[in-house]
Input
Amino acid sequence: MRLLHTADWHLGQTLHGLTREYEHSRFLDWLLDRIGEHAVDALIIAGDLFDGQNPPIPSLMLFHRFLASAKARFPRLDVVVLAGNHDSASRLDASAPLLAALGVAVIGAPPLRPDGRFDPAGLLVPLHDRDGLVAARCVAMPHLRPADLPALPIEDGVEGVDPLIEGVRQLYDQAVTAARACLNADEALVLTGHCYMRGGALSDLSERKILGGNLHALPVDIFPADAAYVALGHLHRAQAVGGLEHVRYSGSPLPLALDEESYPHQVMLVELAEGRMVGRQALPVPRAVPIHRIPGGGRFAPPDATLEALRALPLDADAPRERWPFVEVSVALASPRPALREEVEAALAGRPARLVKLAVRLTGDGAALADHAPAVELSDLEPEDVFHRLYQRHHQGEPPPDLMAAFQQVLMSVQEGA
Ligand SMILES: [Mn+2]
Output
């Protein structure tokens, strides 16, 4: 059977205030064609379907239209949709009964039994081959928040043991046990997750990293060794995890930030036979709207060279506005140049391109630099950075770990609307 793995669509996302609707709609049309071309049997969308808790109406329309077209063109297609940390788990769950009637499995929060305990059977989704026979069992694990995890009798801070990681491990263990109970010998065990993974073993706890949903980086051994494929979401760059070719992030299908311009955006086509992965192929997603970064690669160029490069940009005069390239300009200034923005805008005036970001770095010598330190844009900072800066304004040194952890918890409940 053939599985198509994608994630991190972030429908409804804007890039510095500009809509991505056109790009998303082109991607979804392209995806439908690939499902047909490669005779795909099952589609897994591993979280962050939407960019926010309350998706804008056009992004809901896109998603519903996509599902309706997919089921009309490919009635046998199994579709599995998981909540990511950006999605509202309960909002996705609200549509789950309706979409289940269409053959689309949606898992927002981990399912619970009437007594409030985790119900691993609720995560299991059978995936069918072209003959309509079950060829794989999917443990459709969504993004897990600390509140979803079992309370473990482990003190935080005990060396080598992280209660959050152990909690995630328990849920996967229970779900895999439930899957094995109905797994036949020639059926593949497929898992999903929307989480931050680390490649190494559990011992390098010092390297643990908190990303997004406050979940500690997970070791790859939380997944069973006999899993045929693990479809992950959360990281936007496509990659295998821990050197295991069958444990993969598909990455996002489009660049969600300007510095993701060079990522190999793709979806992953996986071939399963007799319970294991026998082939895989990355399908590169065509770029519907080009991104031009001047000079690119995170570097800054002098103003005259920048203006020259802007004027020389090859642009398609016939392109409709929705296809006009996004342009990022990064300028290094030896001295202040108050008219720079006007000069940049003039270089693009009347031309089919959209300036999304003008970054300026002052490069004068020490004294001049202190007077003209480049202003930091709030939008360039993560909430953790802002907290860090505030702490350092009032205290010596770094914020203590327990304070950072408390901040992370508050941040997460705000971000997740909990
Ligand atoms: Mn995510």
Q: What stands out?
A: The mean pLDDT is 88.
